[in-house]
Amino acid sequence: xxxxxxxxxxxxxxxxxxxxxxxxxxxxxxxxxxxxxxxxxxxxxxxxxxxxxxxxxxxxxxxxxxxxxxxxxxxxxxxxxxxxxxxxxxxxxxxxxxxxxxxxxxxxxxxxxxxxxxxxxxxxxxxxxxxxxxxxxxxxxxxxxxxxxxxxxxxxxxxxxxxxxxxxxxxxxxxxxxxxxxxxxxxxxxxxxxxxxxxxxxxxxxxxxxxxxxxxxxxxxxxxxxxxxxxxxxxxxxxxxxxxxxxxxxxxxxxxxxxxxxxxxxxxxxxxxxxxxxxxxx
Length: 282
Description:
By secondary structure, the chain is an alpha/beta fold. The chain is built from eight helices and 14 strands.
């Protein structure tokens, strides 16, 4: 599959507007983004590229902050190379290192995770992924726990959960690229994770989780909470991210209707993550 690469040079664009712009591009087929020193790169399958839709969203969210725009076609065989050049390693003290297999291992780190992202979201560079990793690490151990990684992307969270001792880990993504990348990363890290292609309705029937992770955009989280709730044990945790700080109140209202109460909140660069406990079954 060939991709369209949109390279934007930006001048003092507010970070929140850049993130809103990225979110709006997801609605018209874009599926991957790279932050650069002076702007962003956005990627879309060639057959889904909508130039008019792109320009409309540029005007709405970035306007005069756009200095230059370059549109390129990238052949499928070059895509891995693009990611190999742009995805840095991320270290979480001496607890966890998320790196590409071309980057050196650090023997001082407790959990070494190799992620070659290809087209998938989840390299630990984004605030939402980083916050969930830190939340998991703060638990110290997941021994004996059952963990769901919904909208798994690269499966970095699923892999970490398994390395932290989880008894069973399931990872699901609706995107075929993400599914295939998750399978490859799970194999690369030599862990046992059940990876599935599909949406929330693909959760293994009758399987209930102790820790349920979902790092997805706000609307999908709201639409799928019914499915999540059905597969979370009472007094177990639902950890959500992928939305902005300003959306917390709206999400709290929806989750409370399914018997969840907020345990904690994390904010980073306007992004939010919340930890909820399932207080009761409805």
